[in-house]
Amino acid sequence: MPSKTRGVLPGFGLSLGITCTYLSLMVLLPLATVFVRTADLSWSAFWSTVTDPRVVASYRVTFGASFAAALVNTVFGLLVAWVLVRYQFPGRRLVDALVDLPFALPTAVAGISLTTLYASNGWIGGYLDPFGIKISYTWVGITVALIFIGLPFVVRTVQPVLDDLEVEVEEAAASLGAKRWQTFTRVVFPTVAPALLTGFALAFARAIGEYGSVVFISGNMPMKTEIVPLLIITKLEQYDYAGATSVALVMLIASFMLLLAINLLQWAARRRLAA
Amino acid sequence: MTSIALPTTTAPRAVTRATGESRLVRWTLIAMALAFLALTLVLPLALVFAQALSKGLPAYWEAIKEPDALSAAKLTLLIASIAVPLNLAFGVAAAWCITKFDFPGKHVLITLIDLPFAVSPVISGMIFVLLFGAHGWFGPWLLAHDIKIIFAVPGIVLATTFVTAPFVARELIPLMQEQGCEEEEAAIVLGAGGWQTFFRITLPNIKWGLLYGLILCNARAMGEFGAVSVVSGHIRGETNTLPLHVEILYNEYAFAASFAVASVLTLLALVTLALKSLVEWQQRRSSYHPADPEALPERIVA
Predict the structure, then answer these.
(1) Is the domain A43-274 a CATH 3.30.43.10 member?
(2) CA proximity to A228, closest of A211, A205, A203
């Protein structure tokens, strides 16, 4: 640990003051309104709002599609990270840079592009339509958009861990007679598993709140392809502030629990690494 | 202990005998990964430009220089020019107090800084409607004083600033934690002032990380859709940002025009990615060649 001789460096009061004031005014006070507004409601009114069939259907769509997308991202994210870290091939650096595209591309652009791509007359949708497979305006389309959004989370969490993996450990496994596949499942995989789980949680957390990329492709049919963020907007537009904040509170609690889980996972991974 | 990070290699290690896969497995995995990325990333990217130019170059140009598109572009630039500097100042202050000092509640503070990342963009917009909307806490007061925040520019600035708040701090905290504070302490002991120390010692050390955070913060500020969509009211020529303009055109079935405007945002994203790669490359390079040790004042060993 670097030495922290308190009192030598200036600016503690100023920087902490700016940080706390800014955070309170910009982040905490606005977020607190959700809790305060919901507290205006009676418990039974709150409960009947958040368990309304249309709301429950939207939880199912949001959480189901987010889970499926995060799962796909976990599998392919590991594959992409592995290929980028372990193999040399032409264009590797370009591909590595491209992985961050979903972070940089505005979500609305991703939304209209994916919708057009998978519509029944689109580049990909056109091939699937004769087989009766529809992606845009269905549950599958929502998942496709969430896969796009979540991919970099898994790749960027797994990549550094794979990079740090000691080749000697694999060599030891091989010299003790392990087949390559055994080395992967018994040695490599357990080491990257915590990072993979963190990546999954990050992708999932991002997906449940996602709006821009999903709203175009989902078709937004109540009970079928309506996601929770859209339902919140619909309620706001009808000036149903109580309804919107109640549903938002449920989502906030889900997000905070995920954030907590991610922090615990990372803390556990660091401890394992240090041990 | 030195404050300079050991260089880390990111180039793939030479795949060695017993720990490598056969050629066939290797190329199958590469092909699968590339096919997946082509399907999920490259095709949507290519489609934006193909659709944008589907009605020809003159139509493309027309869609971009149309007055509503131009005013949306101006508003987007204005929003970013307010939100990004605010979060830059916040990010530097937060990183300074967190990495240079020890105080109780530090970990709570770090978690709180991350909070906006965990909140859905839609909720990020909604909270400002709850505060400043017609039925919000300050709504009646604002109405009485004829101040408009929601469905006006200030609301968009607030929502964008909230959403992009963590970016600079997130980049700086790990970087400055790794660098420690010996160099700054040496400068202070040798008689430098606080700001002098910051601008002469700290800033040169963190410049690439700072730039990286700024680039990401700017990309998100210009591209934010969900939060802005809730507070903007979609008034053409007044409260429409570029992403919202894309949405309106798309919903009016003006697909070519919509993708034309979208292609501008896509170019911005590609520039962001290029700058990001450049910064990462510089960061790696500068960690190989740390500042000339003889030019540094002698380290204080505590």
Answers:
(1) no
(2) A211
